[in-house]
Structures are given as structure tokens and as C-alpha cells.
């Protein structure tokens, strides 16, 4: 399913913030192939922007978190962070030696880092219960 640009929180009435928050969190469950840098560039950028917007929103807006919000946030965190670890491979071809070789980083780390940051801000929020 394509990643679509949703309205910003400033564009909707506060009474719709919870609904928009959940829609944005659910959109962030869409995963992208970071092993192909040319695939779905727009979707990757929209997800990055949405994660930033969600993080800013919970950092600057006071509201009561609903149980539905908790469920969606935990599910989005799970989908983005819990994944199989690829086997250690040395790009040069020999067996990977963690003491000798440069680390091989997860290509999706920039998005994963934003997911971690959002989740941390969510659980540290004064509105977290």
C-alpha cells in the first residue's frame, strides 16, 4: 500500500488529533526496502517526515493518550524494530570478524532511529500513563 501524505496536526481541529495521530502511526507500519536505494524514494521520505511530525507532536502537545493510541504505537514500534538479524557478512567476501572488520550497519537505521526516538518521547511524555 502506498504511503500517502496526511494532513498535518495544524490543519485539523484538536478534536481530530487522536484520529489523525493513529492514522499517522499506522502509516508508519509500512516497511520499505533500504537495500535498494532507488526504490520508493518518495515513500521513504514521507515516512521520515511523518515520524518527525509525530515526535514533534507528542513533545509539544498535551493530551490524554487513549488505550487505542497505546496499542497502535506499540504495534508500529514492533513492526519497525523487531526484525531478523541478517547474518554477519564481510562485503569483501571473507568471513566477517567483528574484531578486525568494519561493522556492517542496518541500511534502515535512519528510519529505525526515528522510530526509537518517537517511542522514547511517547513513553517519557507527561501524558503517558
UniProtKB/TrEMBL annotation:
It comes from the Eukaryota. One of its GO terms (biological process) is signal transduction. Pfam families: B56. One of its GO terms (molecular function) is protein phosphatase regulator activity. Signal peptide: none annotated. GO terms for cellular component: protein phosphatase type 2A complex. This is Uncharacterized protein. It comes from Wickerhamomyces pijperi.
Amino acid at each position: 500500500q502506498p504511503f500517502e501524505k496526511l494532513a498535518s496536526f495544524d490543519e485539523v481541529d484538536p478534536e481530530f488529533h487522536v484520529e489523525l495521530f493513529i492514522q499517522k502511526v499506522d502509516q508508519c507500519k509500512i516497511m520499505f526496502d533500504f537495500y535498494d536505494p532507488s526504490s520508493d524514494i518518495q515513500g521513504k521520505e514521507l515516512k521520515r517526515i511523518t515520524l518527525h511530525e509525530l515526535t514533534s507532536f507528542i513533545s509539544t502537545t498535551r493530551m490524554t493518550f487513549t488505550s487505542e493510541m497505546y496499542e497502535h504505537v506499540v504495534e508500529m514500534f514492533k513492526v519497525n524494530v523487531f526484525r531478523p538479524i541478517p547474518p554477519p557478512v564481510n562485503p569483501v567476501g571473507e568471513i566477517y570478524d567483528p574484531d578486525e572488520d568494519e561493522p556492517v550497519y542496518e541500511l534502515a537505521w535512519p528510519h529505525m532511529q526515528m522510530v526509537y526516538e518517537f517511542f522514547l518521547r511517547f513513553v517519557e511524555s507527561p501524558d503517558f500513563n
